[in-house]
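Action item from last week, closing it out:
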Amino acid sequence: MTLTCRAKLGLVAGLVAAVLAGGCSSWKRSGASLESKSEATGRVLQPAFTTAVYRYIDPSTADVYLSDLPLERLMDARDGLSDVSGNIVQLHIFLVPQAGKTPIDPTACNVTIRHAVLAKGAAGIYAGAGFSDISTLGGNTVSGDLLGATLRLGEATADFADALGPQRMLGTYKAELDEDAALALGDRMARLAAALPEVTPAKAEAKETKEVKPAQDGPDGKGGKVENKPGK
């Protein structure tokens, strides 16, 4: 079949439009790879993040947000997300390490973390702090390596199953500068935290004892991955 010149031009235009559309929809996609590993069982939670945005505050301060949930749903304040399972992570950077001026050590602290886990109506937020090396803030992207952070359950609904207990989070992230999206995710996290009951240390220990299974229950006899598939 021979295409006319007009048909060829139409085909090329369609392909260009498709490429541009794909680029616009995926430019917020992240190469972030963070994992949370249970200190009690060795089980690992490693979300497949599809959104990574950040908000610049000043040369030393920024908020990074990562999620495996659809960005359009996260930005819709009317959407309660009660029908989905997934993750929202906030990294609040309050100090950019500088050689010779600030500590550069995995045992230091320059980032606080909140990790919300949603499970179709049930929800819990893990909170903690750690150390990350960080690229210069204020550019189109920010990237870093989270060299180690400790978290534990801080707020949760009564039906939330704490499958990890106290945990360590580490990995890499790269986020695009997008103040509107970052503010929307920050508001989402703040409203979720305000709505969830606080988990006291005694209650957290009780939930960990009840919900966290022995490591030998994992498929390899040393713990296993926690299933947490994002909803649609």
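Closing note: The longest helix spans residues 5-26.
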